[in-house]
Amino acid sequence: MQEALFYEKKENGRVACRLCPRLCAIRQGHTGFCNVRRNVDGVLYALNYGKYSSSALDPMEKKPLYHFYPGSYIFSLGTVGCSLHCGFCQNWEIAHGDAPTRNMTPQKAVESAKRYRQQGHSCAGIAYTYSEPFVWYEFVYDTAQLARAEGLKNVLVTNGYVNEEPLKQILPYIDAMNIDVKGFTGEYYRSTCAGKLEPVLRTVEIAYTRCHVELTTLLVTGLNDSPEETGRLVSWVAGLDPEIPLHFSRYFPHYKMDLPSTPMETLQRAWEIAREKLSYVYIGNAPQLKAESTFCPQCGLEVIERYAYTIRMPGLDGNKCRRCGHAIRLVGIAGSTQND
Fold this sequence. Notes:
By secondary structure, this protein is an alpha/beta fold. It folds into two domains: 2-46, no CATH class; 51-321, Alpha-Beta Barrel (TIM Barrel). The protein has eight helices and 21 strands. It has an eight-stranded mixed β-sheet, covered by helices on one side. A three-stranded antiparallel β-sheet has the order 1-6-5, with no helix packed on it. Strand 11 (123-128), helix 3 and strand 12 form a beta-alpha-beta unit.
């Protein structure tokens, strides 16, 4: 266990966690909503520090990050626990179950990423993913600083449910984030995810000015997939920056939810709505729609061709469209892991 950051001691041995917008008031001997921050004799501890449930060398596109070192790989680590409780959770065994964990120090995580690079893999750095990295805050914060010092990139794949102070403290060490905007109504967040929409939007608004950001929205049949809601989401993203990449994902029944899988026509319609205002729009979990490639926003040339996690870059000249010369928003030269 490691003493947690961002908490206050209260009367009668209680503590108030300040990491996420849930602001749990935790009695002695109890854990917060995330199930990994426990009050022990009036001190809040991170139970999951140095404990990981999953690790792999993943394609960067799996995060999904399509505009951050495309074609490279990243050493990916996940822990247990989560700050939301989504009825459709695809990783519920590690987010809310009792998944086994193994130990890893921040130094070991950095050494593992460096070893992949030394073995000839195009490993850009470390991704904190699979479960919610912000409930792993202390470990991620320590590891990210070491990784940065070693020339490695740090990536968060997150639900964005975090307070401003911890977010701003860690952002100087983060190079890219994929943030889930799970829906665009407060009611959807309350009833489906046990959370609130506004803090997530604020996380996006802060993060996209500090690091590379891509967004993902899982379209759940009949709950958050109407053209009207998609239109509001897209307008909000475009108001921030129309070149922020937006990924729509197809929902499949899982965990506590048995609604039918997202219809293909719903995904296609969402893609069409988003393309009216955004430069880069993608659909995941539906390769038959062929909406994974990157097209030049100016002339329409297919500059990066994707199928699953296999990519070709026939239309790129450096980071520009080979046909018209338009600059494509990319961080890092495709396939490279060198520092910018």
